[in-house]
Design goal:
The chain has 403 residues and is of the alpha+beta class. The protein has helices at 30-41, 49-52, 111-118, 124-130, 135-150, 174-181, 193-208, 238-247, 260-263, 268-271, 279-284, 358-381, 386-401; strands spanning 3-7, 14-20, 58-61, 63-64, 67-68, 73-78, 155-163, 166-167, 215-222, 252-257, 275-277, 299-301, 309-310, 313-314, 319-325, 336-338, 345-347. The model has no long low-confidence stretch (mean pLDDT 93).
Length: 403
């Protein structure tokens, strides 16, 4: 089974990431991995921390001579800001006078429930781990999953649908998403320049008022064949696993698969994706399409309202997952809170923070989706080496082409 874990705190010495279960022989490009980390750091509305950090993954194990070797891949991502926090957050007892306690919890953050849970007198240790800084380690893990999927012709990308009330208002084609993700400068990762300008204006308004702003990102899986995932057990359905994976990201409060939200207010005849079959074209010997479900089977769909998933199983269309991101909870004009020490009404604590992180959250969600899909691919096709996995995968694709 493909598994991953992360460790580390926001202002600690480093983040740690480990991935196990990858087959041997996957080519690993450290520069491409670091670009994925760079993408997570981009976006209009990011805070001062992103000007300090230049995330790079230092691979300690599991990769030799440019390929995975079947053993766990361990990585570290150094925090450059650590030099400013060594005396504040030492491993040893240290000087308690230098500790920066967070004495008034921020509404919307893990500060208060975490402090109650772990019996902390301040929220510092809670926010250090609850911080979205942890998602950088997930992106490093997800990059390895993307490299595996790429060997099978499967790709994962994201784009921004909405920032506040400013939205794209149309579907994005896969080539548009690819082009947006490949840019050397990423503002809000929207595929449409005019919509992105409206989103930028919404961020500017939040910045002027000392507020923060959320939005919606969309993650698309392109090129996955039908039959990945299963309906037979509740905890093995791909839709449930994807929802959990994306919902686990910091500040994500809702997840949508396909047209799930609008489907709830529509008639069935307007929602379900009618099925066709290209038998006539097959008899005439026409070339098979390169994209969509027809790449694998002659069964076809004119729409993809299901978001590529039916019954917890991929159906060959693009898998579409949307994450709804609440505004960041650290405000330059803090909301009301209560002092841990005096129990008196005070303003919530302020930690250096962002105004908008929707594009960055999309990149982190790509990682979580890629890890989920890669896990299910390995579960289905097996293989201790990439060559064995690709042989099993090719045999299955031939099977469904002949169905």
């Amino acid at each position: 089974m493909l598994r991953f874990s992360t460790a580390g705190e926001s202002h600690g010495e480093a983040l740690v990431a480990q991935v196990s279960g990858l087959p041997a022989g996957i080519p690993v490009d450290p520069q491409w991995l670091d670009r994925e980390l760079w993408r997570r750091q981009q976006g209009y509305g990011r805070g001062g921390r992103m000007r300090i950090e230049q995330d790079r993954a230092h691979i300690l194990s599991g990769v030799r001579h440019g390929k995975t070797i079947g053993s766990p891949v361990a990585m570290t991502l150094a925090n450059k800001d650590w030099k400013n926090w060594e005396d504040i957050l030492p491993v040893g007892v240290g000087d308690q006078e230098k500790h920066k306690a967070v004495k008034s919890p921020r509404p919307g953050h893990a500060d208060l429930p975490g402090s109650l849970k772990y019996d902390f007198a301040d929220a510092r240790y809670v926010l250090e781990r609850a911080s979205a800084r942890e998602s950088a380690a997930r992106v490093a893990c997800g990059a390895l999953a993307k490299m595996l999927l790429g060997e099978l012709g499967v790709a994962v990308g994201s784009h921004t649908l909405r920032v506040g009330a400013a939205e794209l208002g149309r579907e994005a084609a896969w080539n548009e998403i690819v082009a947006a993700n490949a840019k050397d400068e990423i503002l809000l990762n929207c595929v449409d320049p005019e919509a992105e300008a409206r989103m930028k204006a919404a961020v500017d308004q939040a910045l002027r008022t000392g507020d923060t702003i959320g939005g919606v990102f969309e993650v698309v899986v392109h090129g996955l064949p039908p039959g990945v995932g299963t309906h037979v057990n509740w905890d093995e359905r791909m839709d449930g696993l994807l929802a959990q994976a994306v919902m686990s990201l910091q500040a994500v409060k809702a997840v949508e698969l396909g047209r799930g939200v609008t489907a709830a207010q529509s008639m069935g005849s307007a929602v379900h994706d009618a099925i066709g079959y290209a038998s006539a074209q097959a008899e005439q010997g026409e070339a098979e399409p390169e994209d969509g479900g027809a790449k694998f089977t002659r069964f076809s769909r004119e729409t993809n309202n299901a978001g590529g998933l039916e019954g917890g199983i991929s159906n060959g269309e693009e898998i579409v997952v949307r994450g709804y991101l609440k505004p960041i909870s650290t405000l330059r004009r803090p909301l009301a809170s209560v002092s841990f020490e005096t129990r008196e009404n005070v303003k919530a604590a302020y930690e250096r923070s962002d105004v908008c992180v929707v594009p960055a959250a999309g990149v982190a969600a790509e990682a979580m989706v890629a890890l989920t899909v890669a896990r299910l691919v390995i579960d289905k096709f097996g293989g201790d080496s990439l060559r064995e996995l690709k042989r099993n995968y090719a045999g299955y694709c031939e099977q469904i082409r002949r169905f």
